[in-house]
Specification:
It is a single chain. With 182 residues, this protein is mainly alpha-helical. It has eight helices and no strands. The protein is elongated.
């Protein structure tokens, strides 16, 4: 074996080692991206659970939301402010889901779920009144995306007060109490 042959063999080994290192780095980056994607989606899902639990943990807020889903426009301004905050937190969560989905950090099924909850609030009588106020201050791209999704599948999405059976039962109970009181 000549010195030149030995030189070429060491060069080939060096190139293979570099190539192997690059492949290992690519796999590690891919794995890190998958972990980050899972963490991001888990964090957003936890935020959604927290949002859902706000009305479970605060009966006064539950009453406000239940009433204002039916009639937002004629409600007391303090109640409108509470409903606005509750609904806007949902919209911000939907917007985060939208960006995560566009960046490949959220699967289609989860994204559809977030969009459908947002649409379901807007489909209630009070939600429609609230939406007329809030859509002007929410991000234009998010408003456009929600409008697009509404035109695609909006007729398949039930209003929020029908989407959650527990919420529907609570609202029906409140209606009966109102009728009984009058």
């Amino acid at each position: 074996m000549t010195l030149e042959t030995l030189y070429y063999m060491t060069q080939i080994i060096a190139v293979l080692a570099i190539l192997g290192s690059l492949i290992a780095i690519w796999f590690q980056m891919r794995q890190n991206q998958m972990v980050e994607r899972a963490d991001s989606q888990r964090e957003l899902l936890a935020k959604a659970v927290q949002w859902t639990n706000t009305v479970r943990d605060d009966k006064e807020l539950l009453d406000v939301v239940a009433r204002l889903l039916e009639d937002y426009a004629s409600a007391d301004p303090a109640d409108q402010a509470r409903f606005f905050a509750w609904g806007f937190e949902l919209l911000m969560t939907v917007e985060m889901a939208m960006y995560m989905h566009k960046d490949g950090f959220m699967n289609d099924a989860s994204y559809d779920g977030f969009m459908q909850v947002g649409m379901s609030v807007i489909k209630t009588p009070g939600g429609q009144e609230w939406w007329e106020e809030v859509r002007h201050i929410w991000g234009a791209d998010a408003v456009e995306e929600l409008a697009k999704r509404m035109s695609e599948i909006g007729n398949q999405v039930p209003p929020y007060n029908e989407l959650r059976p527990d919420f529907k039962r609570y609202m029906d109970q409140k209606r009966r109490e109102t009728v009984d009181a009058s």
